[in-house]
Amino acid sequence: MAIDDIRSSMRSNEEIIGRSDLDDAEAILAITTLDETATVHAVADHADAIFTWDYEKGARPALSKLYEKAKTSQWNGETDLPWDTAVDPEQAVREQNAAMNPGAESLVPPFDTTGTPLASWGEAEYLALGMEMQNHLLSQFMHGEQGALLCTAKIVETVPWIDAKYYAATQVVDEARHVEVFAKYLDTKLAGHYPVNAHLRMLLDDIIEDSRWDMTYLGMQIMVEGLALAAFGMMHQTTSEPLLKQLLRYVMSDEARHVAFGVLSLKEYYAELSASELRERQEFAFEAAVRMRDRFLQQEVWQRLDIDVAPLIPILRQDPGRILFQQLLFSKIVPNCKKLGLLDAGAPAGGKGWLRERFEEMDVIQFEDMVDTGEEYEALDAVAADRATAGA
Ligand SMILES: [Fe+2]
Ligand SMILES: [Fe+2]
């Protein structure tokens, strides 16, 4: 396809994400979770299960190495975490606030809330809000982990390479363990679950519905897991609660492998794709990035508190802690997209690539040269590190 043909088939922001202005609060809030009471949700996955008769193990050495690593770094969510720890959810909120707003002594934010439902709020109300937010955040981690469980089971079926099937099978076990430990933490240490966020569910549905095996990788391994790795890293740094800290440390050591699996596999596959095929991947990455950003408005929390959040959004957007958190969430995604060639694929000579411009619009392009996650998993393997210490 010639460059001109690609240009004419390009979709606008409106066609990709349903709105032209990224910050259109009304459009973001119009997407809601529809059926909160159902216990199951069916999505058609539109894919053939692929057998391969090429059993040559190690034909892709980097994937084979990852598979061997995964086998030796398994852990047990029931017995390797200190579940007897007494957890104080209020303490967690205060620590999070102190980390995101250095120097702040109060949970009451420094900006003007006059004329909003928050005008009369004091320390107690913000503490209650913080606990809801924490609960919502960890619940979305849990739902995202189930998304990863289903996606990697799908990858086992659809990827045509034996080394990738082997590796993905280990990831299925990892993701089962992650769903298990987040659910247990919410049920036994916090106040139970929030339903899946509307934007996260929409994204997970889009990823599962796509028939192309590499889109499962891009959506899950690069975008959702890249964001999770950054979010877990921030939470791990800011919490001193020993159970959550250890849980996140072990989950991250698995997640670093998962993102590496995505980067290593797609790097090979994208080398064969045409400019128009790469453009579809760029658009999918952008759509995923926007859905994940929208999810951090945490609209279900405001609904539960029976507060109309729309008039609050301009105020919430001034919160420096929130701005920093939202940007840092993309600190793994942007360098990984760069490594895959997605930032600048199809760029006119001397010009910027389409995805680079979108990430500029989202104010996250500054992360492009941070470490990518192709090799980071060795350094993040906390399970192996603990075993080496215990055996020394
Ligand atoms: Fe996971
Ligand atoms: Fe994962």
UniProtKB/TrEMBL annotation:
GO terms for molecular function: oxidoreductase activity. CDD domains: Ferritin_like. This is Ferritin-like domain-containing protein.
